[in-house]
């Protein structure tokens, strides 16, 4: 069936996972059976419309009356029933294959939030804003949401999974990338204003490149606090709302922020020191700088970041003169 598939006809994205091939086979089988049935109905309908049309004013001939046909009823019950059962058999075979568990799977913890993706590799302690994967190795995603319902979708992998908010509510998804390259994880569940932009790179590398990437990331983690803070900022979506070049985005720019003086929404003024920066991360709506809307920055960072990570972020902000 794959040779007559929609993918080889260029109508679907490349198959970049082991699951994609199986799902496409099933999809193609359905596609051709349904196309055949549809054309059968189409042909008979057009034939009937043309051949049995009313001809002229005096054509009052009545159709032949018949009262049911047991043979026909049995025929059109058995054939579709057999077809549906056969397809459910094929489907259950594919499902078992798609969900096959490999005990050595690479675990990645995924957090989806408004509007970012964060990927953590528990074995190495790496945190990344991109999902980087070795080719040919099964990956097990353990996914949670920080706020509303999101959905993990990489069209090239043909897998999709809703991610639900709630403590200890972890949704799992397994797949095996089979093609190196760069793809995108998209959010497939309407989740607010920037839903359409909620995507992140997915990079599938060969195993040697992946090991090199891991080594590089782990080296970066152990360097100076400001460098760690920079990685945290890039990997957690901070820079979506805070610029580094002085231009105001949704929130104040980080350039030159440390040490500057600002008027707050309540009319008082504040010098941005370490204590204020820490407060601004932990309780973002307690002392909002005048001119910026309150209630936009999520108040979830106290749970999301460790004390060390907050200190690293502050060190990074203070380094941006
Ligand atoms: Cu997250 Cu749409």
SSE topology sketch:
Blueprint: H1 18-51, H2 70-98, E1 106-113, E2 116-121, E3 126-128, E4 131-134, E5 139-145, E6 150-154, E7 159-163, E8 171-175, E9 181-187, E10 199-205, H3 207-221, H4 225-235, E11 261-263, E12 269-271, H5 274-282, H6 301-304, H7 307-319
Parallel strand pairs: 1-5, 4-10
Antiparallel strand pairs: 1-2, 2-3, 5-8, 6-7, 6-9, 9-10, 11-12
Bound molecules: dinuclear copper ion.
Task: Describe the model.
21% of the residues are buried. This protein starts with 17 loop residues before the first helix and ends with a helix. The chain folds into 3 domains: 72 residues, no CATH class; 116 residues, Cupredoxins -  blue copper proteins (Immunoglobulin-like); 95 residues, Cytochrome Bc1 Complex, Chain D, domain 2 (Orthogonal Bundle), CATH 1.10.760.10. With 321 residues, the chain is an alpha+beta fold. The protein has 7 helices and 12 strands. A hairpin with a 4-residue loop joins β6 and β7. The strands form 3 sheets. Strands 3-2-1-5-8 form a 5-stranded mixed sheet. A 5-stranded mixed sheet has the order 4-10-9-6-7. It has a two-stranded antiparallel sheet with strand order 11-12. The longest helix is centred in the first third of the chain and has 34 residues. Helices cover 36% and strands 20% of the residues. The radius of gyration is 29 Å and the shape is elongated. α1 packs antiparallel against α2 and α4 crosses α7. Dinuclear copper ion binds next to loops. The site of dinuclear copper ion has 8 residues, from loops. InterPro entries: CcO_II, CcO_II-like_C, Copper_CuA, Cupredoxin, Cyt_c-like_dom, Cyt_c-like_dom_sf, Cyt_c_oxidase_su2, Cyt_c_oxidase_su2_TM_dom. One of its GO terms (biological process) is ATP synthesis coupled electron transport. It is found in: Cell membrane; Membrane. It is a multi-pass membrane protein. This is Cytochrome c oxidase subunit 2.
């Amino acid at each position: 069936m794959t040779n007559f598939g929609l993918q080889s006809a260029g109508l679907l994205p490349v198959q970049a996972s082991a699951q994609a091939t199986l799902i496409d086979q099933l999809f193609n089988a359905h596609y051709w059976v349904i196309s055949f049935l549809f054309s059968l109905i189409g042909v008979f309908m057009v034939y009937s419309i043309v051949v049995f049309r009313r001809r002229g004013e005096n054509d009052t001939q009545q159709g032949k009356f018949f009262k049911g046909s047991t043979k026909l009823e049995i025929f059109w019950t058995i054939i579709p029933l057999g077809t549906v059962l056969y397809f459910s058999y094929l489907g259950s075979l594919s499902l078992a294959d798609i969900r096959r568990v490999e005990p050595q799977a690479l675990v990645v913890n995924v957090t989806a939030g408004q509007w970012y993706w964060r990927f953590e590799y528990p074995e190495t302690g790496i945190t990344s804003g991109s999902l980087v994967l070795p080719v040919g190795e099964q990956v097990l995603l353990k996914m949670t949401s920080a706020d509303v319902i999101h959905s993990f979708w990489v069209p090239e992998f043909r897998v999709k999974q809703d991610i639900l908010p709630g403590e200890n509510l972890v949704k799992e998804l397994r797949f095996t990338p089979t093609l190196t390259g760069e793809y995108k994880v998209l959010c497939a569940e309407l989740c607010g204003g920037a839903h359409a932009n909620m995507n992140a790179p997915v990079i599938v590398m060969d195993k040697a490149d992946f090991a090199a990437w891991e080594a590089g990331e782990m080296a970066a983690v152990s360097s100076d606090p400001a460098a760690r803070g920079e990685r945290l900022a890039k990997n957690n979506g901070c820079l979506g709302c805070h610029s580094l070049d002085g231009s105001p985005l949704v929130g104040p720019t980080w350039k030159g922020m440390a040490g500057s003086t600002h008027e707050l929404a309540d009319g008082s003024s504040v010098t941005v020191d370490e204590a204020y920066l820490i407060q601004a991360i932990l309780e973002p709506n307690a002392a909002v700088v005048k001119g910026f809307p309150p209630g936009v920055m999520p108040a979830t960072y106290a749970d999301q970041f460790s004390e060390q990570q907050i200190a690293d972020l502050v060190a990074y902000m203070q380094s941006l003169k």
